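Quick question: what would this complex look like in 3D?
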Amino acid sequence: MGGDLATFPTDHIAPAEALQTPPPLVPVPAARTRTPAEEARALVAAGTTGTLATLSQGGEPWASLVAYASLADGTPVIRVSTLAEHGRNLHRDPRASLVVASEAPGDDPLDAGRVTLAGVCSRPAGDRLDEADEAFVAAVPMARHYRDFGDFDTYVLGVQRVRWVGGYGRMDSADAGAYHAAAPDPTVASADRAVRHLNEDHADALLLMAQHLGGFTDATAASCRRCDRYGLDLWVQTPRGGAPSRIGFAEPIDAPDGLRAAAVEVTRRARSAAGIEGGGHA
Amino acid sequence: MGGDLATFPTDHIAPAEALQTPPPLVPVPAARTRTPAEEARALVAAGTTGTLATLSQGGEPWASLVAYASLADGTPVIRVSTLAEHGRNLHRDPRASLVVASEAPGDDPLDAGRVTLAGVCSRPAGDRLDEADEAFVAAVPMARHYRDFGDFDTYVLGVQRVRWVGGYGRMDSADAGAYHAAAPDPTVASADRAVRHLNEDHADALLLMAQHLGGFTDATAASCRRCDRYGLDLWVQTPRGGAPSRIGFAEPIDAPDGLRAAAVEVTRRARSAAGIEGGGHA
């Protein structure tokens, strides 16, 4: 305890980065990914439950589950009771952070995407309070039953720091300005379903993508781990071992129902690169 | 901010307690439930992922996802890197809390069971370090890839306070002594599967339990929300509204595979009380 913290590196390096994965056999240009700020916004938009860290009476850190909503600019809204420890804590000291996590794509819980938003909570008033309360009830329907309970306060978290971890080897910080300015990903609500559909019904198309768009010409199988408005994250099996492969869409998706057309397009492109006639259905 | 905290009640009352549910029409004795300490131990034993709250450089609370294991007495073990903010935080100030949550039985995320363990982290040495590292690698298999990385420290959380919330209207605190002394529930690993099985294949048996053991003689349907070594938590539909009903087993379950026999016994008892010949299979 209490060693020289100045000697620590200033950023995190995932241990699994040291677990080498084989590169593509044919070089391919890097496909566009979401920025860390966009990743953070997507995680916050996709969830309604997070863990709040507040300060207990003696300044100790207190972790507790909360439901949350988010405003159009990604600002989190919570409703907490002064009968609960986190509510009393915020009343005393408004500093807080909120972590929101998604499900891990595989069995490893630390490969889950998550984001910590750290800042200071405040109680909005007037139109801002109405906006916050409406967002909260929309995100957490049960809240309509206690929206008028006197012991509940609505808080917005004024975000000061954003730390995104997308799983092993995918992590970065973002400042509050970038976080609020980032465009929401319209595919957030449909992404998990699309990933399941691709894996259940279109493993052949995923393999063609890995072989002919991802440069893994020796791929023997491929599955989809994540998708977003810019493309697909595949996990590719090769005789050299498993490896990640990012497959970009032709254009960023701008509509909530855009994933299907984008998957059809990228499948057609993979079939064309493979010299297979006609487009695939995805 | 900063009002008179002394006026706050010292314990939490769930808002949904004010949402009245109809009582049984026939009085029934209260069935045994797990103690808050046993609930806390069960939640910790069932998971491998939680959210840690630590203190950042300026004393601000920092929430972050962690994988954890637990020792035989329920003490949590974490392995964190000094390259990550939470690792640097613990190095500077070992005060921490860990929240572990289960899935909510329905659509409402705040009906999930969760527990906050608050205390002080320390780095074990000697046999205790070996025990902690072995528990961690057993709980988090990926950790074997980075168990020898120099930037990772193993910590145990010395529990000082335990706050359990089992969902709406189910919550209590436990002291550290009761937490460590509580008997683990051997059914933790099989409970979710048993609940699914009861709901999918034995809705008729659940309805008989609600009607003839739970005192809801007007029940029209029943589903199982949770189970543990002492009994089943049902949600009962009646013309008077939905209501919870606790159905106790004849004896506490002492073995990991004991749920099936206990469900068969309680089904037989419900059929017998209903005047139906023969025992049911559950």
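Answer marked as accepted. Chain B touches chain A through 63 residues (CB under 8 Å).
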